[in-house]
Amino acid sequence: MSHPAPRISPFEQIRHTDDDGEYWSARELAKLLDYTKWNNFVDVIQKARLACETSGHQPSDHFAESGKMIPIGKGGTRRVTDWQLSRYACYLIVQNGDPAKKMVAMGQTYFAAQTRRAEILSDLSEMSVAQQRIVLCDQLTEAHGHLAQTLDEIGLDDEDFSPFYGHGWVGLYAISYRALQRRRGIPSDETPINYMTPQESVPNLMRVQQTDAKIVRENITDADAAGQAHFQVGRIIRRALQEMGAPMPEDMPKEEHIDIVRRKEARRQQIEAEDRLGLWALSPSDEEDPA
């Protein structure tokens, strides 16, 4: 199946790389976020630095003050203050920016999704694939429960839930929920979540969590607006996957049902526990020399 050429996020278009890795210029980010006065953006940076320190991180690891030359009249240049920002710094900046600015709102979703993805992958790095599937399935179930509570609190009726979730699936998968079930041979009363690889579960978890956060952050109370927000979050995450060259979610394989994985993992852990207690050691009669 062919896919359209990926559309590069404006936040990725201004990303720089050097020998130390990736970074963003605060001057370029300020312009993208529609801050016309640098001093106003500096206030946002300082709030983000404080949030970084409060969260237990070293601000100097994420905010490196620098300078750049800008052109002035008659062919001259002038040195101005700039900052080299990590992805996490950008995340904190957009979280502390003016949500009334359209690009700030987009940045909140984009950098939150990217940052959360890195956190999830870090947490899962030392787990087996089976353990990853179980943990992510549980997290997805919990996130869906929290989102459902949010939808109930903003006044959505039961009849609104199906189209709301449908928007999110189309945003991320570019096909409908039912089409995905048919494509993978999943019964109509079963959720695709039970058959997902970890690589597919991670963007779905981000989709649910970031939609929940967006609805609360933007005080969305209308069913149509909530559905559109769900679609937008799903589409942003899809574009991020395209930019990274990752397989599209709809092309990922159908795995063994999660209930089977849970039973196998429980049995494996039981055997390991019994082995540590010596219950699988040979009996004295087994150890005797048959000769």
Task: Walk me through the structure.
- The chain is an alpha+beta fold.
- The protein contains twelve helices and four strands.
- The protein has helices spanning 10-13, 26-32, 38-54, 87-95, 102-124, 129-153, 158-173, 177-184, 198-217, 223-243, 258-276, 284-287; strands at residues 15-18, 21-25, 63-71, 77-85.
- Helix 5 (102-124) packs antiparallel against helix 9 and helix 5 (102-124) crosses helix 10.
- The longest helix has 25 residues, at 129-153.
- The radius of gyration is 24 Å and the shape is globular.
Query: Could you give the count of β-strands?
Result: 4
The radius of gyration over CA amounts to 24 Å
Portion in helices: 55-70%
* Mean pLDDT figure: 85
Number of helices: 12
Distance between the termini: 65 Å
Low-confidence stretches: 1-6, 280-291
Sheet bearing the most strands, described? 4 strands, antiparallel
Beta-strand fraction estimate: 5-15%
Secondary structure category: alpha+beta
Which sequence of strands runs across the widest sheet? 1-2-4-3
Output the helix-strand order: HEEHHEEHHHHHHHHH
Indicate the overall shape.
Answer: globular
In short:
This protein is 59% helix and 9% strand.
How does the SSE layout of this entry go?
Layout: H1 10-13, E1 15-18, E2 21-25, H2 26-32, H3 38-54, E3 63-71, E4 77-85, H4 87-95, H5 102-124, H6 129-153, H7 158-173, H8 177-184, H9 198-217, H10 223-243, H11 258-276, H12 284-287
Antiparallel strand pairs: 1-2, 2-4, 3-4
